[in-house]
Design a protein that fits this description.
With 183 residues, the protein is α+β, with helices and mostly antiparallel strands. It has a single domain, classed as 2-Layer Sandwich (Beta Polymerase, domain 2), CATH 3.30.460.10. The chain is 45% helix and 16% strand. The protein contains 7 helices and 5 strands; from the N terminus they run αββαβββααααα. A hairpin with a 6-residue loop joins β3 and β4. The model has no long low-confidence stretch (mean pLDDT 95).
Amino acid sequence: MAAVPVEIVPYSEEWPAQFALLENELNRALQRVAVLSIEHIGSTSVPGLAAKPIIDIDIVVERQHVVAAISALAEAGYVHCGDLGLTDREAFAAPDENPARNVYVCVEGTLHLRNHLAVRRVLRRNSKLRERYGAVKLELSRDSNMNIATYTAEKSEVLQDVLASSDLSDEEKALILALNTRP
């Protein structure tokens, strides 16, 4: 995989407001779909945490509503990219970059969703882990040869420490580690 710079920036107070605007936009696009929740996940959802300046969003639905959500998002200009190798999580390219965002439709209760929510919950509550995780991300971003796959793999150790404070089982944490470090 070619090196693409991984940009990490200090936390921005604008990120929650950007998410709120996107949440409203997505709620309008999905008004005919039984959405359970729209979650601001990833590092931009954790106050004080350095992050890639990209808003990550999980749209949570029951399995039977995935197809309807995909159709509604496509009508709103989002491009369906498939599951990108993660069953029960459908990825979308946004119709614009204002703001930059990653949007996913996730089946409720799946490990991918529970992982995102657990990481957010732990990092919001534990300042020491949040600071350590931010420092690791900043250090990795300084490597001009970094690519996103290596970046994800290299931060897996600290993420496992974050998940140690979650309610995920040891088996689930091992599955997440395997996904994050796959070639």
